[in-house]
Protein: Dolichol-phosphate mannosyltransferase
Organism: Chitinophaga costaii
Amino acid sequence: MEKLVIIPTYNEKDNIQRIIEAVMGLQENFHVLIVDDGSPDGTGAIVQSLQHTYPGQLFLEERSGKQGLGTAYIHGFKWALAKGYEYIFEMDADFSHNPNDLPRLFKACAEDGADVSVGSRYVKGGNTQNWPWDRAVLSYGASVYVGLVTWIPVRDATAGFVCYHRRVLEAINLDAIQFVGYAFQIEMKFTAWKLGFTIKEVPITFVDRKEGYSKMSKGIVKEGILGVLKIQFQSLFKKYHRRVAAQPLQPGRPVSK
């Protein structure tokens, strides 16, 4: 069962080698795709140098300039589907997501009946670490807000540590995903739920980054707040149908805005 971990990067030279080595050190034989948005700090060059160590396991897709987290993942999803991967993971480069939790997300989909598994901070056993109180309140409040507005049965809908079975990504019209920042994670889970897929939350401890800097901004938070309202409003007039992919998806196709 081929498993691919997609890690979007922008200026992650302090973390990228360590995170790749940590994932590659797991016994479950995960492959890694780095989607780098032209990092000026040389992140892409570090990945290239490591490809000789992990031939056929470590891949790099380089894009020109910052294009947003959502478009990086869409690019990675299409690449993964075209290459035949069965389980596709989202993970941050900064160790806020513990690579040792990847096998638990995989098990939830491969053995426990989930179509989507979510590394969750807000189910029993989940936690956050090293967060200032204001960020903890903002994050938890956002999750409560998403649940109240959308009714999605996921406690941590904003989570970015996720495993998708390929059938989920094949069924979603990836070109119709609207958001590129904070709301992207919510829209993907909401769409999967509306299409009737089973989502299982797996408790994790989310640790604040120690190296590099956070990509969070006021614009991303604003997109999240307004985006949730837009997602729910549009869903009232939309019929959700599973996409049947007649042709292989091409990574270079643009994402709708």
Remarks:
- The first helix runs from residue 16 to 24.
